[in-house]
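Hey,

Quick one before I head out. I ran the complex with NAP overnight. Inputs first:
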Amino acid sequence: MALDSTSVIIETMQSSFLKWRDFSLDDRISVLKNIKEKLLQNKRDYAYAITTDMNKPIKLAIAEVEKCAYLCDYYIENAAQFLEDQEVKTGWGKSYITFRPLGVLLGVMPWNFPFWQVFRFVIPSLLTGNVFVVKHASNVPLSAKALEDVFNVDTIDFPIYKDLSIKSSEVANVIANPIIKAVSLTGSEHAGRSVAETAGKHLKKCVLELGGSNAFIVLNDADLNCAAEKAVNARMQNAGQSCIASKRFLIHEAVYNQFVDLFKQKLSTLILGDKYDETVTFGSMAREDLAVELENQLEKSVAKGATIIAGGKRNRAFFEPTLVTNVTVDMPVFAEETFGPLAAIIPFKTIDEAIELSNKSNFGLGASIFTDNPQQLDNYLHLFDEGALFINEMIVSDPHLPFGGIKNSGYGRELSHFALYEFANIQTVVIK
Ligand code: NAP
């Protein structure tokens, strides 16, 4: 889109902000209810857009749209409590903290969960009183337009969300626009650094949700059957294209062979086939170049001594569910983020060693630990460099809980009550 039409959209959104800012929270919540209804009424059309854009099996695309509605419900129920003014006792007559919006926010969004990522960013901050322009990933144009449609509800006569069909090279100019007050990017480290640099230059708030290389740790007392089932889902969901997917599987040496056999067996529970077939659960990756990148990481690792024990083959954008053993920490399948259906499996002897391996990553999004005796972890959990720890469960993003990482996984938090404050002016008011 030409720069001037982008500027015109941004100016329109500033007018929208001045109106939306004056809505009471109750009125904003009413609009959110309309958005949720529209989402559910059209869920099949929206899911079709997701599936067509990035090959996610339609069953999972419908689930993604439904999860967005679930997120709306969470904020419809809880926003009033989260955004209530907070009175504070001081030496003055009255003091309180109140939450004001910032203005027009920019979202730079990825293709892997084209609806969920946008909802996660937009909904809490919409209730705070902000409005949005979004640069979506270039390979999800149908989803980008569908999202603009979702937010265009009959009960308001001005836009609160506009899609900017711009190239990534134009993002810096949008951040520089004085109307834009802050930016949130979900995507790669490379994009995160670029957006943070521009945001820093213009002194604008920035939230970054970047990559991950989560460890999935199985201790020797774990329920192996359950852990192997979770492992398949944690790694293979969305054809492995999830920031919070478990990518490195650290298995206690006493149960290593048994777990690996079970993991391999349970890959057969994935249902492969046509992406529009509602029974299918595993499909092609979003683009052929992404599958080629994964293939390169695998080939370089095999050249260093890794062994493929399941899958490993690529046909255009389709990459077989793949398990790799004999992995060492210097191999790309361990040291880099693998954004596809490939699990690197490595044995360990002690919990200390497992934690050291888990932390041996530039990322810090989350780790899962499987054990029959979670109490034994009490003295260890503080040693993990992660934004989230899930015991006997795969990492998921849930509206009730804050979501975000440390290290190169980014900074800031989405979801829960924390999300409402990321793009708020937390204002102190003192009345003497
Ligand atoms: P990406 O290439 O970084 O793209 C994400 C978005 O950033 C797209 O809209 C992209 O636009 C834009 N972009 C790319 N380079 C940019 C730049 N230099 N300046 C400004 N914008 C830029 O990432 P992706 O391939 O879509 O997504 C995969 C990555 O996202 C993985 O690392 C994954 O772990 C991470 N991710 C993280 C989370 C989380 O919550 N932590 C969630 C999902 C994904 P174009 O499409 O036009 O290039």
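The chain has a mean pLDDT of 98.

Talk tomorrow,
K.
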